[in-house]
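Re: [help] complex structure
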Amino acid sequence: DIQLTQSPSSLSASVGDRVTITCRASQTISTHLNWYQQKPGKAPKLLIYAASSVQTGVPSRFSGSGSGTDFTLTISTLQPEDLATYYCQQTYGATWTFGQGTKVEIK
Amino acid sequence: DVQLVESGGGLIQPGGSLRLSCAASGFTVSSSFMSWVRQAPGRRLEWVSVIYAGGNTYYADSVKGRFTISRDNSKDTVFLQMNSLRAEDTAVYYCARVDATMVFAVDVWGQGTTVTVSS
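Output below.
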């Protein structure tokens, strides 16, 4: 199975900060990489698909990049409502996996 | 409106069976890829299974041979039959629509149904 490793596992940042989360795959997955936001007690929400395509309705401060094994989710200007856990997911091949998550807290 | 509503969760003893249902509205499951994703308390999301529009099915190693995904096209409902349940199957189970044009990203999630495996 393809493993995904996210870093950091958690971070604390101030409103207005630029936040970067990375996701590394154990083997190449082209751009079969998606990002989700999950707020406490809620179902996840799709932010980014195919590594860099922003889902309809997602604020423009969210962006994604990468290909192969290394990927990045960036929040350009952190907002209070971005308090959440962020997960990457790979969909390369027949079985899919999620990263362990990155918890974003607001200072 | 596109919506997924899960049901069927509950408390079950180890070794028991449970069938989860996911009723879809606003789209047709027969022409969609549908998946189940679970999340144990305080843990990461875990992909469980997918059924392709063409009917192919795939499973995570942790549930292969114990869980079966299926669908009833006439009722736009997807099922997850779970047998030989273990304590580690305790989780919130989410039904999800997968968009094959978006590298199989989940674009619609249900609200989740809770399965607790305990004696």
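Chain B touches chain A through 22 residues (CB under 8 Å).
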